[in-house]
C-alpha cells in the first residue's frame, strides 16, 4: 500500500508563491495538495491504492525518478509563468509521459471543478516546455 503525504515542513520560503493573481486563496491549498501527491513525507495521507491500485503502483515507481526539489519546482510552475530548470525538466521527462499524465489526473481529481481545465492545460504546457528544453540541451 502506498501513501502520499502532505506536510507543511516541505514548503520552503524560496518556493512560496507571492503573486497568485486572480486564482484566489484556494490555489495555495491546491498547490499544497499537489506537492503532497508528488512527495512522500510524514503527515496527512491520501490513500490512492484504495481508489485505483494500478495508478498507485505506477505513481510509486514514478516518484522514485524525481527529486523533492524538482517536484516542488515543477508543481510551482503550474501556478506561475516560470519554466522548470533544465535539470528538473530532465528528471520530469525521464519519468515519462504516462507518469506525467497520471500525476496530473490525480491532481485534477483533488482540485475544485473550476480549476480542472486550467490545471490540465498548464500540465500539458509544462510537459511541452520541458520536452523542448531537453531537445535543445547540449549532449554531455
Automatic annotation (TrEMBL):
Spans through the membrane: 27-46
Entry-linked InterPro entries: Prolamin-like (IPR008502)
Domain Prolamin-like, first and last residues per copy: 61-130
Pfam families linked: Prolamin_like
Protein keywords: Membrane, Signal, Transmembrane, Transmembrane helix
Protein known as: Prolamin-like domain-containing protein
UniProt source species: Populus trichocarpa
